[in-house]
Each structure stands twice: as C-alpha cells, then as structure tokens.
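Give me the fold.
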Amino acid sequence: MEEQQVSVREAMARAVAGLGDPPGLAVRAMADGRRQRRRARVAGGAAAVCAVALAATGLAAVGGPVGNGDGPGVRVQPASAAVPQVFGTVELSPSPAPAGSAGASEGLPDAERARVTAFRQDTAAALQDLLPPGLGRIRLVAGQVPLYLATSSQGSHVIRFSVVPAPQGATERSCAAGEAAKGGTCAEVALDAGTRAVVRVSPQGDGRVTGTSVLFHLGSSDVSVSVSPDERAGVSAPVTADQLLAFVRAPRVLDLVHRADLAPVQGPEVSVDEGAVR
C-alpha cells in the first residue's frame, strides 16, 4: 500500500515537473500593483495637460490686446525694469541765450553740476512727452541751463524753460497795450486760483514767423517757457498758445517749477524783451 502511494506521488511529480509555479496571491498582487501605477501615471499626465489648457484659456480670456490691439492675446509684462531716458547735448553757435542770461552752467562744482543736470534731464523728458510730437527730438543745449533744442524734418526750434529768482517787488505778468497791433496775440489767463500767466504768440525776425511763450510768477521765481520759430526754414513755432498753456498747467511741469523755485538752477536775470512787461 505504501509502495502504491509513493508511485502515485512520483507519477504526479513527473506530470507537473514541466509546469511553472501557479500564480499565488502575492504574484497577483504585484501584477495588480504594476497595472495601478501605470493607470495613475496616465491619469496624472492627462490632468497636467488639462491644467495647462485651462490656464492658457483663462489667460486668453482675461488678457487684453497684444501690440497694436488687432486681436485678443496674452498680456506679457517686460521682465526688466524701464531704463531712464537720457537726452543728449548739442552745441549751438552763436549761442541763442538772451543778453543778461544767468543760465550758463560752466564752472559749477561737481555736486551742483550733477543736480542741475538731473533737473535738465527731467525737464527734457517733460518737453518730449507733453509738447506736440511735431517738435521732434529734444536735446539739451550745452552750457545753457534753460535752453533745449527740438529738431525734426520740418525745422529746428529753441525751447526755453527758465525758472529764476524774481527781483524784489515782482508782480504778476500782464499784456502791454497795443501788442495786437504788432501782429501778435496776447492773453492773460489763470493757471490756478492764485496764479495768472501771459500767453503770447509774437512775430519774430522779419515778421513772417511767430514764436509762442508763456510767462508767469510763481513762489519766489519768474517762469518763462517759450518755443522759437526756425527763421532760416521759415517755420513758425509748431506749438499753439493753447498747447503751451496746457503744458505749463500739467502737474509734472508745475512740479519742476516748484523744484527750481525751492532750489534754483539759475541765478537772477536782468530784464529781457520777453519779460520786460509785467
């Protein structure tokens, strides 16, 4: 009986000798784990793609036009900070500075020269940004604090932005009698509740061209802003009285005037033609 049992076991062993191990619970669990990990990776990738798509859709929905506004797009902010605008210097010969000008910048100590230069750069930026673009490129006139040169294909125009300590007893500006008879215009206007200004369009040279100016007294200073004609090219100042008045009324320009009133960048001047009438 025992010999028959052994023979049966041996026969069964020989029958299954060529077969692999049957898949038990551990082997099945490992296989199931691998399948679940593959599903998770596929699902994660799909979710990431959806998230990117949704983000792009959201940006497109809230973004404004790109460039000139021809179509919808994503607003992209520049990565680097804006670089301060620097205006060049030009020399004029002969100098257009009026007689008695105290605007010369030669011989200043280094610290004072740096302060004056910073003021002139800020003034040039205001001139470039706030005056009509037809004036063209703005540059500083070398050696003359109040003077700037605007150049374009239409001509060259000297711009004067002067804030100087006023003489004692200075009063508000006013138009002279008979100015209109000379071919120009003059108007007295209010800059604000306490400041009046004189706005002039005056014939210059042989009378074929005109310049535009605004003059007023603010704080302890006399202020003169003017744009000259290009007499050689026969072109009047490309700035109207209203445009120049709007310029001097701008908060940015009045800040420059107050800044030069508190810390002058020019010395006192003797009276010149454009400021002789008060």
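Helices lie at 2-16, 25-62, 110-130, 241-249, 251-262.
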